[in-house]
Design brief:
By secondary structure, this protein is α/β, with parallel strands linked by helices. The protein is 42% helix and 13% strand. α4 (91-100) links the parallel β3 and β4 (108-110). The longest helix is centred in the C-terminal third of the chain and has 22 residues, at 127-148. The protein is globular. The active site is at 11 (nucleophile), 17, 121 (proton donor). Residues 5-147 form the Phosphotyrosine protein phosphatase I domain.
């Protein structure tokens, strides 16, 4: 894999999965002494202007991450052009992005590409679904981090 310096994490609403993944990846990059990374998140049907869900904030806090300043944003053509790697949570999101932005082919991948994980949406589910989400995202990002080194 070529050297990657910009990563966009994408889910549906940009209030559960992708904000957690964005914040976790930023921490991992920092702790790995990798430099000059641009990391962000967006949603394909974002709840624009909303905070992360309370359960996302809670699970992040339990993992020493802070989502309190997160504000949901919509995926745009600007994002798709700007970021070298776009990581999605589910296959349907990959297909949606590649259909809407055909030039994105080759840069959109499942976050669970290396371990065959799919990160299902915990939105409006009980807290244990968010704990499971965080565990899966953490494992997936560890695999990606190795590719960035």
């Amino acid at each position: 894999m070529n050297k990657i310096n910009s990563v966009l994490l994408v889910c549906i609403g940009n209030i559960c999965r992708s904000p957690y993944a964005e914040t976790k990846l930023k921490e991992m990059i920092k702790n790995s002494n990798l430099e000059n990374f641009n990391i962000s998140s967006a949603g394909i049907n974002a709840m624009i202007g909303e905070s992360a869900t309370l359960n996302s904030i809670k699970v992040a806090k339990e993992n020493n991450l802070d989502l309190s300043a997160h504000i949901a944003k919509q995926l745009t053509i600007y994002h798709v052009k700007q970021y070298e790697l776009i990581l999605v949570m589910e296959e349907e999101q990959k297909k949606w992005i590649e259909k809407k932005f055909p030039f994105s082919f080759g840069k959109v991948h499942l976050i669970g590409k290396w371990n065959n994980e799919i990160i299902y949406d915990p939105y409006q589910k009980p807290y244990p679904a968010f704990v499971e989400m965080a565990k899966k995202i953490d494992l997936c990002l560890l695999d990606w981090l190795e590719k960035f080194k």
